[in-house]
Amino acid sequence: MQNASVPSHVDNYIELIGNKCEYVEKYWKVEVIEFEEESSGEINYAVRIISTLKGQSITFPKEIIGDSDFEKMLLKRLGRIGVIKSYHLKIIENSVNNSLYEETNKIIKAKDISNFLIKDVLTGTPTIFYYKKIINHLQKNPELYPTRSSNKYDENVSYGAILDNLKKHPIGKYGHYPVAIRSGALLKLFNINNCNKYSEVVNSLVQQGFIQGKLTLKDFDNMIPDMEYDSFGSISFENNCIKKKKRKSHAKGISMKTKGDQIDSYIVNIDLSYGDQNVL
Predict the structure, then answer these.
(1) d(CA 184, CA 180)
(2) Residue 178: which residues within 8 A CB-CB, separation 6 or more?
(3) CA nearest 270: which of 262, 259, 278, 260?
(4) Per-residue confidence band for 113, with pLDDT thresholds at 50, 70 and 90
(5) Are 272 and 279 in contact, with CB atoms under 8 Å apart?
(6) Would you put residue 18 in left (φ > 0), alpha (ψ -120 to 50) or beta?
(7) In the prediction, which pLDDT does 248 show?
(8) What pTM, to 2 d.p., does this model score?
(9) Helices (DSSP H) in 33-168: which residue ranges?
(10) Where are the beta strands (DSSP E) in the chain?
């Protein structure tokens, strides 16, 4: 299986299509990478854009191509390694989508490259990417999110529960009950190894209303160095961490069954229009 971090080869470049594509080809080559996420077992795609001028590249998850906020950031980054125009990205987006149907022989097969993506560009990924991961995981794995009233939550298997019988968590404005996701399960789903980055993403999700909670200015203060979370959201500090201030968490104690212990969880507001399937 070819690894995505190996040098690019001309046989893997997809064909760029559309008006003025020859101008894009002058400055950029594009590869599509198929990989399986080790944490979830899901098959995903990544896009690698390679500068013909400097040979440097930027790799990012395919599912966020076309996002306006991400493209603003991407234009700046590509501008550091080559000549880029906004219309180049539209040609690249259309060509990537075409390659998934017409050029399957050009797609690179790779092992889990999540760390490669994080190292290359993921620190600039917009928050919406992580919310889409939640929605897609919920849609593709409904058995991992039983309703609270069913009492089918299994602490060894389930990621969370649909809060369908709690008065303080009514049906949201998009027609669905919110979902409680275990702290540790959310960390696993996001596949972020840096705790400061994880907190930054969660704060941003709260700020945009995707996760329930309230922010204060203290949420954006300097964070404590890396911490480890177990699968149930408990926190342990590394030896080199100095516990000068308590890290605020937006996780709340939620009972996943009608009767039972409370588990530290994040309450996620559900809008299925962000998912690939748009059904639950």
Answers:
(1) 12
(2) 162, 163, 169, 172, 212, 267, 268, 269, 270
(3) 278
(4) low
(5) yes
(6) left
(7) 55
(8) 0.52
(9) 68-79, 86-102, 114-120, 127-140
(10) 28-36, 43-51, 57-61, 108-110, 160-162, 179-182, 227-229, 235-237, 252-255, 262-268
